[in-house]
Fold these 3 entries.
Entry 1:
Amino acid sequence: MGLRFAVATFAFELALALPAAALTVSPPVHNDTDRVGCVVQNRGKTPRTVTATLRDAGGAALTSFSLETPPGLTIELVSTSAFQIGVYCEFDGTSRKVRGFLQVQPFGGGTTLLSLPAD
């Protein structure tokens, strides 16, 4: 029990001490004529890999993409203009400095109509 137990205990305590990548979800929106996108903003000083998944009301993945997000940039990772009820963004790899947002823009581009942070 001695060494094996000590190594297992240390590994467990180390896993608890390491910061976990956060999984955050935006509020859902109804999309009938606009474009919905999952946007990542890196306000940190180092690159961070984030996965954005656009999901339907039932939780099925519509599209997903991972990218190492450079510091100081805001990047749209995935989007859809298809008719969807309850579409939302799920982000894996966000933190205090790297945030995810669901954004709604007019089809064809233009000013952002709505921006909802993922929590």
Note: Confidence is low (pLDDT under 50) at residues 1-20.
Entry 2:
Amino acid sequence: MNLDLELRKKVLAQVLSYISAGVTAVIGALNWFAIREFQRILVVYVGVSPWAWRAIDLFTFMILGILWLCGVYLSQDYYEKGYWKAELLKRLLTITGVQLFVLLVFYYITYIIRLRFGI
């Protein structure tokens, strides 16, 4: 009986950490594309040679993708450990808050640059 309860707690910890990591992944993907859009506008505004645009875009996309994947993987472990310390919700809200802040900052900066320079 005690073994069954322990197994259920482990499964619950994993399921909740996967769901939390899924939330982190979705918001992280939005951040990924917001930062990429900012990079595209920045490249045009700074005056980088049009021949280099494609290479810069692909390199940025690759680096952001690797960072996104690492972030999702590490957050799942972080959430699972938080479950055992009764801090899962606190950890999820902290990471989600930071991600939403980054998202809003990059959307706002991109909006201001487009508005100001007509890009």
Note: The two ends are 65 Å apart (CA to CA).
Entry 3:
Amino acid sequence: MKKNKEANTEIGFNEVNEKLDRVIDTMATKDDIADIRAEMATRRELQALDGKFSSKFQEVIAAVDGLMKPISELKMEYAGMTMQLGRHEERLSKLENKQ
């Protein structure tokens, strides 16, 4: 019999055998590992996917940049119109004060 130092109890052969049976029941077999490997992507496949994602990402960035330029131009146009409206308001105010 083996003594368990933590619990200070004796562990019999049957208990060790039961624990090993539980480990063996849940342990992967060579066939399990072969099945998993067959389903896994290879390094070459992952590199190909990376290339596809990289090119798609670049396309998305270019599309967003294409959308941002007109938005930026509209913001500048709006700022210019706001300044013009401010000047017109000043002129109107001066004209009203003269009358």
Note: The beta strands are 2-4, 9-11.
